[in-house]
């Protein structure tokens, strides 16, 4: 549903403002695409956008595996030292959550970022002759730039997404822990009152 918005965005970024083909606004871009390419033109690159869903899936799988490893390690430490595992211990440090969120996002981007480059090149109106289809875009990018070509702009993308990723995961984990511990304490008080 949002592909037309991304398409206009890419074309606005890749076209000089003084160009006769530059879109003046979102509405101008959408109407121009429908007029010149037909309604299906709004969905150029959609199949590649669906590949983007895998980015989140890879990130969450990697994050959950690292989190499980972190908890297993912490539990072993508690067992070795004879400490009791309790609600307060059932949480990793914010540093650990930050490290895991960065690492999982890097893994996901390393595997899926090339689709973003291919998608942007297909959606770029100025480069439509060079990159008309997915296979042609992949072939030409590989021939002209090699593997590095598929990771163009990755550094900028990391600067854009990593801070938000870290904040999201740290806040989520802390809120989830707070809700769990509050519910467990409430349940313990209820049990004590019943006894």
UniProtKB/TrEMBL annotation:
Solcar repeats: 1-69, 92-178
A Pfam family reported for this protein in Swiss-Prot or TrEMBL: Mito_carr
Chief location: membrane
Top-level taxon of origin: Eukaryota
Keywords: Membrane, Repeat, Transmembrane, Transmembrane helix, Transport
An annotated GO cellular component: membrane
Localization of this protein: Membrane
Membrane topology designation: Multi-pass membrane protein
Keyword Transmembrane helix carried by entry: yes
GO biological process: nucleotide transport; transmembrane transport
Gene3D superfamilies: Mitochondrial carrier domain
Residues spanning the signal sequence: none
Alphabetized PANTHER family for the sequence: MITOCHONDRIAL NICOTINAMIDE ADENINE DINUCLEOTIDE TRANSPORTER 1-RELATED-RELATED
Family: Belongs to the mitochondrial carrier (TC 2.A.29) family.
Annotated protein name in UniProt: Uncharacterized protein
């Amino acid at each position: 549903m949002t592909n037309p918005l991304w398409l206009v965005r890419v074309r606005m970024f890749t076209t000089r403002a003084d160009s006769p083909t530059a879109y003046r606004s979102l509405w101008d871009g959408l109407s121009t695409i429908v007029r010149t390419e037909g309604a299906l033109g709004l969905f150029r690159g959609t199949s590649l956008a669906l590949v983007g869903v895998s980015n989140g899936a890879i990130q969450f799988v990697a994050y959950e595996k690292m989190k499980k490893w972190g908890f297993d390690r912490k539990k072993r430490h508690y067992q070795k030292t004879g400490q009791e595992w309790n609600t307060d211990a059932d949480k990793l440090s914010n540093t650990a959550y930050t490290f895991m969120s960065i690492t999982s996002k890097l893994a996901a981007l390393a595997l899926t970022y090339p689709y973003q480059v291919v998608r942007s090149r297909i959606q770029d109106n100025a480069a439509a002759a060079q990159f008309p289809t997915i296979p042609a875009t992949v072939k030409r990018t590989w021939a002209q730039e090699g593997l590095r070509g598929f990771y163009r702009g990755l550094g900028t993308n990391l600067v854009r997404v990593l801070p938000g990723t870290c904040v999201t995961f740290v806040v989520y984990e802390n809120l989830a822990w707070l809700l769990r511990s509050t519910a467990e304490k409430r349940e313990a008080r209820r049990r004590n009152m019943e006894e």
